[in-house]
């Protein structure tokens, strides 16, 4: 029953009560002073009842909502409103709860992000500082390897900062896709040619398999290049010498599916979804030494989702290889 229906019912029931009192109770004593007293008491009772109902059903919830809103305004997002009998106010309260839960979550993510970024910046900066102090104190000799090491740490910082920029734009959806009708096949071949030397150096085979019926698709070439390079780069990084990486693409049900399958170290079931989280690395120490910061797949996920696609990982388990797939729907805009 909606709010106005309830009020209407309240008024009708009040009149009904008064009429009942008039007809049944006051029938025999009408006109007497006692009748007037009963009449006034009945009116008073009806008014008091209405007051209590309105207070309980409307005023109290509104006061509680106001108090809760003030707490949100002061930056406290943990409180939730109870459920109310009144359907409209209850719907409002539950929407309010969803809103505060979302704000609380994004606030928590913001705090986490600052912590993560500080943590990521600390390691390379510490390494540079220690090396510089060693150079000043002459406990480290000024050899070219020392400077190369420092340069590597600085490159790592630069890479982190530029990835953070991309991530923040991607997470706030502050980027526009430059979609063009283009050939995925050409794009994948270009990327594979570009990465061939790195694969040769490590002794990992890289192959491309494109299905013959792959049509042209509308996508942002630079962004999808970034996604594929990241996934293929990861595959190379996690596949030991002698292994194999296959990049394939096929088309079905109005969407292209791009698959990067490697014969590398694989993933445990628990990590299959976590690897798309910001700063998540399965083996933190090993990854740190090879320069990964755990942002690549998070960016990839945002870019794929911006295209209306999905991205996911599968693996039969540790040392069973990993497969990363993403879809690109055929879009008209
Ligand atoms: N092909 C793969 N095989 C095994 N683990 C992988 C693979 N690709 C990604 N991962 C895991 O997912 C983590 C996150 O990947 P990513 O977001 O690209 O970050 P980064 O490469 O900077 O560590 C990696 O650190 C790694 O632990
Ligand atoms: Mg990566």
Strand order of the largest sheet: 2-4-5-7-6
Which blocks of ≥5 consecutive residues have pLDDT under 50? Answer: none
H/E topology pattern: HHHHEHEEHEEHHHEE
Which structural class matches the secondary elements?
A: alpha+beta
- Quaternary structure of the protein: single chain
The Cα radius of gyration reads 33 Å
Helix content: 55-70%
**CATH level-4 homologous superfamily of the largest domain:** Histidine kinase-like ATPase, C-terminal domain
Bound molecules: adenosine-5'-diphosphate, magnesium ion
Tally of helical segments: 9
Question: Per DSSP, what share of the residues sits in E-state strands of 2 or more residues?
Answer: 5-15%
Provide an overview of this structure.
By secondary structure, the chain is an alpha+beta fold. The chain folds into 3 domains: 3-76; 109-171; 179-329, Heat Shock Protein 90 (2-Layer Sandwich), CATH 3.30.565.10. 60% of the residues lie in helices and 13% in strands. It has helices at 3-25, 33-73, 87-136, 144-171, 184-202, 221-237, 271-274, 284-289, 296-306; strands spanning 179-182, 205-210, 217-220, 244-252, 255-262, 311-315, 322-329. The chain has a 5-stranded mixed sheet. The protein has a two-stranded antiparallel ribbon with strand order 1-3. Residues 230, 233-234, 292, 296 line the site of magnesium ion.
């Amino acid at each position: 029953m909606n709010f106005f229906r309830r009020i209407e019912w309240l008024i009708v029931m009040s009149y009904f009560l008064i009429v009942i009192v008039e007809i049944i109770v006051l029938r025999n004593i009408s006109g007497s002073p006692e009748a007037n007293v009963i009449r006034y008491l009945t009116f008073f009772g009806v008014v008091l009842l209405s007051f209590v109902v309105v207070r309980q059903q409307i005023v109290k919830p509104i006061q509680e909502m106001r108090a809760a809103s003030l707490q949100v305004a002061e930056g406290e997002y943990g409180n939730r409103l109870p459920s109310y009998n009144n359907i409209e106010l209850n719907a409002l309260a539950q929407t309010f709860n969803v809103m505060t839960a979302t704000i609380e979550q994004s606030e928590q993510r913001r705090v986490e992000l600052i912590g993560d970024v500080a943590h990521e910046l600390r390691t390379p900066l510490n390494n540079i500082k220690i090396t510089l102090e060693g150079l000043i104190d002459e406990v480290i000799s000024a050899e070219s390897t020392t400077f190369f090491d420092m340069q590597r740490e600085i490159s790592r910082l630069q890479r982190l900062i530029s990835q953070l920029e991309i991530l923040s734009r991607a997470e706030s959806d502050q980027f526009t896709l430059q979609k063009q009708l283009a050939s995925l096949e050409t794009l994948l071949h270009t990327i594979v040619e570009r990465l061939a030397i790195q694969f040769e150096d490590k002794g990992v085979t890289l192959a491309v398999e494109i299905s013959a019926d792959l049509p042209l698709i509308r996508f942002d070439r630079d962004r999808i290049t970034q996604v594929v390079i990241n996934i293929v780069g990861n595959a190379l990084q996690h596949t030991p010498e002698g292994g194999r990486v296959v990049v394939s693409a096929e088309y079905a049900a109005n969407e292209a599916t791009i698959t990067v399958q490697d014969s590398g170290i694989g993933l445990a079931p628990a990590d299959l979804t976590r690897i798309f989280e910001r700063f998540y690395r399965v083996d933190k120490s090993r990854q740190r030494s090879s320069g990964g910061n755990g942002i690549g797949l998070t960016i990839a996920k945002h870019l794929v989702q911006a295209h209306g696609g999905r991205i996911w990982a599968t693996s039969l388990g540790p040392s069973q290889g990993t497969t990363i797939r993403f879809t690109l729907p055929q879009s008209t805009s």
